[in-house]
């Protein structure tokens, strides 16, 4: 098969050599390891965008989202392998695009997300840096790589799933560590990789490896010599684009079915901008008032023009607003969801139409911009995703009722971190600490000890003195990040003394 030529120069290697299984492909073994992982199963009870509570089965969770990303990624990979000769040659030169590798990466890409969605991720990062004094804090993508390489286990090793290099590389959406960008104020956001962010005085906003996994990140990327620095492997690019497509389209499905997304507000915003875009463009940024229809969309237009001039087009942006207004607002949202067959067919048709459209808009770029990747959306489709994501953000994520709920969730994350960390520091309670947390402390402390032996400078001025502190801190973060939403709430009730069901709520600690 054509696919078998890919990754013959190291991409199929594992850290621990395993006996070959007759008739089984190495990558197929890996994807099954990921799918059978308890970290993967846990995603069924972790928030994707909005909480499932009270919404029945219509809302995606992290597991269903990951399965759909996997399906979209596989479709893109197959399309690339059946493309014209020039595209196939480029794909081969960049290291190949195995459909099973991109499926595995898609299945794994959200393993590191903590309870309560992106807000939980942000709060866990804040408390891990400010309270626990972990320099590289918490980041969901770095946590995913850590799960695959250190926290999960398999029959070959107690530390990590022993996956092939190609699949480990394919989850590295942001192939750098946090501190790699620390203090770099010389470049604007438009000249730095997507995900680094604007405020780099404390390092990159998004990154794919903590200090303890940086060497492994460098090792897996070393088998892709045609991939430039700060660029994803081609298979990772496919997974990343598939994630964007699934998020932009499938989550709209959620918002419509749950009646969170309302016609009147979305129609007013897009319609006003389309009618008065010239007038809005003439305003100073200080004059933009997001409470007034059209102003928030104008702010997004300016934002992408500043950050992504390499692809931004005024004409393409307007065309995308018109397309989304016509198909989503006037088409789908124009008929409120009532749970009937006609409404179900309408939302299914909308989803299928847009998935097909975006999947058909894939570009393979042999020399991508620093803010792009080797596989990306066409200019037209890129603007479509920008507008669809704007609808998510403006009319779902910024809702005050959701904000109230999320603010309560952030308090739970902070409470858990502080509670378990204080417990670890109490010598009189050492024998009663949950065994899983004790084991995690020992393992993380050993990781920092090994890191110090390899590279003392990696731990900064504290050096050896900080090993035990860092081990405790990282173990607490690993422990809490592995909770489901419900488990985080019930365990917080336990540790704050608010629970009246200690035996039930404490199971699995």
From TrEMBL:
It comes from the Bacteria. Residues 1-23 are annotated as: Disordered. Transmembrane segments: none annotated. Residues 62-248 form the HD domain. Keywords: Hydrolase. NCBIfam families: dGTP_triPase (TIGR01353). This is DNTP triphosphohydrolase. The lineage of its organism: Bacteria, Bacillati, Actinomycetota, Actinomycetes, Micrococcales.
